[in-house]
Amino acid sequence: MSQTSLPTTDPVYLTPPSNQFNLQIAEKGEGSFALLAFNRWALVVVFLWFGAMKFTAYEANGIAPFIANSPIMGWLHTLFGIQGASYVIGVLELGTAVALILGAFKPIFSVLGSAMSIATYVITLTFFLTTPGVAEMTAGGFPAISAIPGQFLLKDLVLLAASVTLLIASFQDLRGSFRH
């Protein structure tokens, strides 16, 4: 079913708004514009908020155990210290947010931002394996997981899925923008 034949009253299949500036809006290539746009802007909020928080001592100390126990990220503490590592991550998260924002208008940035988001959540999901306290021993151990850090980390699986969904849609639109 093509986008033009989708029912416009169904909120899942809302078509993109008029594109009077001829912008290459990444979501325009998909039938579920509203859902993809919601997906994008939800990720933007997460990355802006979490990225900004990385510039506080509270957040730097909060993520320190995840970083310290990670073979992928542990070097950041060695090189930059606890707050410096948090700054580096904050800059990357804010950069991801900027790429996702620009991606609403240019598909190449949508691909970049989505890929950066995917990398973020793949890395944070590895913390599930490396951070002490994920398995809840009072409930018999794994597969029972603790609220924090276990369930806190597991929710990143949904954010990873959102990022992959946006990347796929962005690639489709990027291919379409080269044909025009």
UniProtKB/TrEMBL annotation:
Coiled coil: none annotated. The keyword Repeat does not apply. GO terms for cellular component: plasma membrane. One of its GO terms (biological process) is response to hypochlorite. It comes from the Bacteria. Keywords: Membrane, Transmembrane, Transmembrane helix. The chain crosses the membrane at residues 33-52, 72-102, 109-132, 152-171. This is DUF417 domain-containing protein. It comes from Advenella kashmirensis.
